[in-house]
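Section 3.1: Structural characterization of target chains.
Under the original work plan, the team committed to producing a structural model for every single-chain target entering the pipeline before any wet-lab resources were allocated. The record below documents one such target. The sequence was received from the expression subgroup and is listed exactly as submitted; it comprises 177 residues.
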Amino acid sequence: MKRINALRATFQGACDIKVEVGQFFFFVALICMYILHTGGTNMPDSVPALEQQRRQILEQIANLGDFRSGSISSVTTRCGKPTCHCARPKDPGHGPALRLTYKVKGKSRIETLSAPGALHKAQQEIAVFRQFQQQVQSLIEVNAALCRLRPVSSREPEQTPQEKKRRKPFNRKSRGK
């Protein structure tokens, strides 16, 4: 009987540990979700501090340099000639050819990057574009915080002459038939 009580006590202690570990991971998950939601940065609570942060972000954007959107991919092709080595089974084909793909006015464009210098230049420009995207996201977050902190204007905006001429809604009861 003593042995059974000792096992129950041990088992009870193990359950308590599982609950504590479960609670620990729950709180860790909450903290991670908060960090992901806020972007991992503490946003200042004052309008002047947020305006200063906005100026810094705009300055960083202005100093980024050349950038372009797009992605670089490696392509192997087959020429279609029946006597070429690429027509044989299990042959890798011609290439690899490095290509830069990007969009202009909704249409995909492709540039072939034949020289190693062109590849390096395109990689750098795309990396700077990713930084640009991050800076724009930060700017949006700071501006949203500024909009939340600024007080609502108590006075009504003045109406334009066109709005003043607008007719008021007709509120007459219709006659019953």
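Confidence is low (pLDDT under 50) at residues 13-19.
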